[in-house]
Amino acid sequence: MAKAAKIISALFFLVSLSVLLKVLFLNSYQDLTQYYLGVKAVNPYLSGVIYPPTALVIFSFLNLFPLFIIERVWTALSIIALFTSVYLIFKMYNKQILSSLGFMVLGLVCWSFPVKFTLGMGQINNFILLLFVAAIYLLRQKKSSLAAFLLSLSFAIKLFPAYLILQFVAMKKWKFLLTFIISLFLLSLFAFIIIGPNNNLYFYQHLLPTFLSGWKTDYYNQALTGFVGRSLPYNFFSQSLVNLLSLFFILVSCLVIFKARKNKELVNMSFGLLITLNLIVNNFSWQHHFVFLLFPFLATLFYVQTIKNNFRLLFLLFVSYVWVSFNLVNPYAVPVLLQSHVLYGAILLWILEVYLIWKDSRPLLLSFPAKARR
To answer: pTM of the entire structure?
Structure first.
């Protein structure tokens, strides 16, 4: 039976992968093209590029080759980064990636719309995912300096995931935080020298403030602001509602991670909670950003597996995955409340994380992962 399940799940993955690999043959990758052409401009930020200066340094290397070559290589490397992230998460939990569960997870990853959207647009998300997953993995390997550098690189390129810093504050990892800050400063200084002061100042003075103001009501914005902005007119009341809801999610998350700060079993769950929080309360979270939920989903899955009689929790986790992973081809043909299905899935995942962490936040000193305890 186990061998048959492994064969079936492997076939599911291969079929899913064959569908996903069609992305290698698209005619264009809109965001990648913008990176490629934008860095050629005197001021890339006037050409539509919105990434921090450190990202511009990376994008500048794209111009060493013709665009059609860059498109294929970038997409192939993005797929590799995605699967490497999954492999590292499995390795954190001493799980076999070449197993029935591993093939099933990989197959579901291939069908996720945020994954397809990231690849189809030529987005940088899978590389950012790999950076912070590798940082968390290295942290567990007690290589905190390298972990801090990788996390600072993730933040310097995409300003994500900012809320992970709260976990290190809760754990009083002051050396890690100092290394993170120094690394971030050095990366920013390097970008300042390479990209030049004018472009750096333009980003920080004119572009960065827009990340914190204004609402984007497109269907693809699945943050709280998108939900409220599509449901209510922009005014003092709707802005106050977003602020209050965001404050609620942030305060509850902080309370939970600080309560669980001494329980080593819950560290990854806390990281996952803060990544989920980041996507919910961001001023905007496009659907392709939700590829970052890969870590919270798997961290929660592996934690739920340690719990006896866990069918309900697994079912809710699967519902959350489905809501996050599908896409409405014609979103404006459905009621406005149904257009925020990705946000609902993220909130359901956040609730599961809060529940599990709060319920089990006892100051245990066991190594992770633990065996079934209940």
So the answer is: 0.93
Whole-number Å distance between alpha carbons of 341 and 327: 9
**Residue 350 identity (one-letter amino acid):** W
Nearest in space to 148 (alpha carbons), one of 162, 136, 160: 136
Query: CB within 8 A of 97, min separation 6: which ones?
Result: 86, 87, 90, 91, 106
Is residue 365 a contact partner of residue 263, using CB atoms and an 8 Å limit? no
Residue 225's contacts (CB-CB under 8 Å, 6 or more residues apart) are 215, 216, 242, 282, 283, 284
Residue 209 CA to its chain's centroid (Å): 22
Asked if 147 and 165 touch (Cβ cutoff 8 Å), the reply is no
Tell the residue number behind the tokens 């698209």, with chain if given. 26
The backbone torsions φ and ψ at residue 221, rounded to the nearest 5 degrees and listed phi first, read -85, 105
Instruction: Estimate the crossing angle of helix 267-281 against helix 236-259, to 10 degrees.
Output: 170
DSSP of 26-48, one letter per residue?
A: -S--HHHHHHHHHTTSSSGGGTT
Between the CA of residue 26 and those of 40, 109, 173, 185, what are the distances in Å? 23, 20, 45, 38
C-alpha 327: how far from its chain's center? Answer: 18
Q: What is the DSSP letter of 326?
A: -
Tokens in use for 125? 């998300």
Cα 48 to Cα 34, 38, 293, 317: the distances in Å are 7, 7, 26, 37
What tokens does 149 get?
A: 């550098």
| pLDDT (tens digit per residue) in 62-113 | 989 999 999 999 999 999 999 999 999 999 999 999 999 999 999 999 999 9
Instruction: Give residues with Cβ within 8 angstroms of 212, minimum separation 6.
Output: 283
Q: For residue 164, count other CB atoms closer than 10 A to its CB.
A: 21
The three-class DSSP label of residue 253 is helix
Each residue's pLDDT tens digit, 158-202: 998 889 999 999 999 999 999 999 999 999 999 999 999 999 999
